[in-house]
Write a structure and sequence with these properties.
The complex is a heterodimer of chains A (about 110) and B (about 120). Chain A is mainly β. Helix content of chain A is about 0%, strand content about 55%. Chain A has no helices and 11 strands. In chain A, strands 2, 4, 5, 9, 10 and 11 form a 6-stranded mixed sheet that branches. In chain A, strands 1-3-8-7-6 form a 5-stranded antiparallel sheet, with no helix packed on it. The radius of gyration of chain A is 13 Å and the shape is globular. Chain A starts with a strand and ends with a strand. Chain B is mainly β. In chain B, strands 2, 4, 5, 6, 9, 10 and 11 form a 7-stranded mixed sheet that branches. In chain B, strands 1-3-8-7 form a 4-stranded antiparallel sheet, with no helix packed on it. Classes of the chains: A mainly beta (about 110), B mainly beta (about 120). Chains A and B meet through β4, β5 and β10 of A and β5, β9 and β10 of B.
């Protein structure tokens, strides 16, 4: 079985500051890991995904995430926050049963 | 590429009526489509998985007779909420995938309000 834990339902950072959204996973098989972003009243957009290749994954909009097996983590980072980054972010894991299990989400607030 | 559309984007209906939501993969053939439900400020809950030409697989606790899913082609899946009630009001999101464990591409969602 797979599960995802996102630490912090709300994160606030100042514009231009580092963004760090935390995600820990549990999986009985080598996982595929994803980060999705959701803007209000919209569907989910894929930011990046890890599929057992490079452990440092670069995504769209300047985001990246690092897969750390020893820590069972897949934290999302961006060096400099922009106002347009304000949204809901979901970490997700896919295991051997092909389903994607989503975390509860982290709402990112950008302070001017 | 990899665009998924949903129709309608928003629907308001009376209690007791049925509502059909369409999910289409516009530029690729999806072997599998998924239907999710999202309550306000919460995560996505998988309702069912559908493969083209076969019956949908429903998650535990999801009433298959209430949420009818049809996956008639590799580019179209429909979710029909039968005899809708106010507690069915929610944001319904579909996704489509090619192959196993590959990325799911999400539709923009359908906001259902049952009065």
């Amino acid at each position: 079985a797979q599960s995802v834990t996102q630490l912090g339902s709300h994160v606030s950072v100042s514009e231009g500051a580092l963004v760090l959204l935390r995600c820990n996973y549990s999986s009985s098989v080598p996982p595929y890991l994803f980060w999705y972003v959701q803007y209000p009243n919209q569907g989910l957009q894929l930011l990046l995904k890890y599929t057992s290749a490079a452990t440092l994954v670069k995504g769209i909009n300047g985001f990246e995430a690092e897969f750390k097996k020893s820590e069972t983590s897949f934290h999302l980072t961006k060096p400099s926050a922009h106002m347009s980054d304000a949204a809901e972010y979901f970490c997700a894991v896919s295991g051997g049963d092909d389903k994607i299990i989503f975390g509860k989400g982290t709402r990112l607030h950008i302070l001017p | 590429g990899a665009v998924v559309s949903q129709h309608p984007s928003r629907v308001i209906c009376k209690s007791g009526t049925s509502v059909k939501i369409e999910c289409r993969s516009l530029d690729f053939q999806a072997t599998t489509m998924f239907w999710y439900r999202q309550f306000p400020k919460q995560s996505l809950m998988l309702m069912a998985t559908s493969n083209e030409g076969s019956k949908a697989t429903y998650e535990q606790g999801v009433e298959k007779d209430k949420f009818l899913i049809n996956h008639a082609s590799l580019t179209l899946s429909t979710l029909t909420v039968t005899s809708a009630h106010p507690e069915d009001s929610s944001f319904y999101i579909c996704s489509a995938r090619v192959g196993t464990r590959e990325t799911q591409y999400f539709g923009p969602g359908t906001r259902l309000l049952v009065l």
